Amino acid sequence: MKKDVKWTKKDLLGLEDLSAEEITLILDTAKSFKEVSERSVKKVPALRGKTIAHLFLEPSTRTRISFELAAKRLSADTIGVSGSNSSILKGETTKDTAKNIEAMKVDMIVLRHSLSGAPHILSKAVNASVLNAGDGWHEHPTQALLDLFTIREKKGKIAGLNVTIIGDIAHSRVARSNIWGLSKLGAHVTVCGPKTLIPVEIEKMGVNISYDLATALKDADVINVLRIQLERQKKGLFPTIREYIQKYGITQDILNKYAKKDLLILHPGPVNRGIEITQEVADGQSSVILEQVTNGVAVRMAAMFLLSQYKTGKA
């Protein structure tokens, strides 16, 4: 008999803190919310009367718009705050900014911050639910959840799949959240990239390491291609962009030679076309990049809904 799982957390800070059952609950809830976006009237009253603050203190396009759209489709009232138009520029701390927002009777704060651990610190300072929209190099839980949702939707399962994450693993919060989520749901995870972009002792997270793209592709059912953070090149973490493309760039020729025919290709965006992935592959039949974006709204609707249910004692 399937266990009846209930949401019991005030905040959603990362997948490291969640059980496999809690992750599955979010994915199952997202499945029901995806249908809302396919209606002519894309709205439900699930969060009517609730107020959600989107506190984005780091640049974002997809994640910010996805969260805002998710809140509106749940009928929540929303306010948006960015670092460039907040009192943080005047010296106010993030904690004080959040407590002032909470004093206006906000129910939930969605936080994007450049410092790892910022959502965890904030969650202890406010009574409002805190939803991590990406913190430093630490975690990006809803991105990983939408990746998991997309994989499960396309492959019908996650347990037993071979998933390879390719690129700048060391500086990727997306990679860390995906590793936690995939591992807890029973996938076999391999990370692949230059040695300088693979974190020391990452194998302790239960992943395999490969420095050779052909080897990493051979048995993969899914690959998640990470954005090469071009700003890292200034620090000399790999010789040249051209060399990176030659050794780790995903091209159709490479896929034809080494990958399975039914390989699923993900990318969290933004895409550096012609660098980590070619235009042909990014727009090809195996790519689900735009479907990931679509699924992100449903996943974030699910996360907000479950947190709100905890706040009302219904979860």
Description:
The protein is α/β, with parallel strands linked by helices and 315 residues long. The protein has 2 domains: 2-139 and 293-314, Rossmann fold (3-Layer(aba) Sandwich), CATH 3.40.50.1370; 141-291, 3-Layer(aba) Sandwich (Rossmann fold). It has 11 helices and 9 strands. The strands form 2 sheets. It has a 5-stranded parallel β-sheet with strand order 7-6-5-8-9. The longest helix has 24 residues, at 289-312. It is globular and about 55 Å long.
CATH topology (level 3) name of the largest domain: Rossmann fold
Strand order within the widest sheet? 7-6-5-8-9
User: Into which percent range does the helicity of residues fall?
Assistant: 25-40%
CATH superfamily descriptor of the largest domain: Aspartate/ornithine carbamoyltransferase
Total strand count, please?
Answer: 9
Sheet with most strands: 5 strands, parallel
Low-confidence stretches: none
**pLDDT averaged residue by residue:** 92
Order of helices and strands: HEHEHEHEHEHEEHEHHEHH
Evaluate the radius of gyration.
19 Å
Q: Rough shape?
A: globular
What class do helices, strands and sheet pairing give?
Answer: alpha/beta
**Level-2 CATH architecture of the largest domain:** 3-Layer(aba) Sandwich
